[in-house]
Amino acid sequence: MQSASQSVSQSASQPHVINLFLMFNYLHITSFLKPLILSLKKYSLNNSKSYYENIYLNIYLMASWVAPFFFIPHSICEE
Fold it and tell me: pLDDT tens digits for 21-47?
């Protein structure tokens, strides 16, 4: 019975560690990607592309920032 309570307490504390680790990695990776994304936005605004190509590029850039937040909780629940 004692080992069961220990495993529950260990599994309860582990997702916080995983969440902090993933958040740190996400911020670390996006700090490198931010200049690239900003340069892509400047390129899309300065380049004479069509209106719809600019919309698709902006949707892609927004999705690349938002998507990891949807995958982080699912990866924690699986472990």
Answer: 666 666 666 666 677 677 666 666 666
Q: Residues 64, 34: contact at Cβ < 8 Å?
A: no
- What is the DSSP track for the chain? -HHHHHHHHHHHHHHHHHHHHHHHHHHHHHHHHHHHHHHHHHHHHHS---HHHHHHHHHHHHHHHHHHHHHHHHHHHH-
Rounded distance between C-alpha atoms, residue 79 and residue 1, angstroms: 22
User: Contact at 8 Å (CB) between 15 and 76?
Assistant: yes
pLDDT tens per residue, range 48-61:
566 667 677 777 77
Long-range contact list for 33-40, CB < 8 A, 24+ apart?
33/64, 37/61, 37/64, 37/65
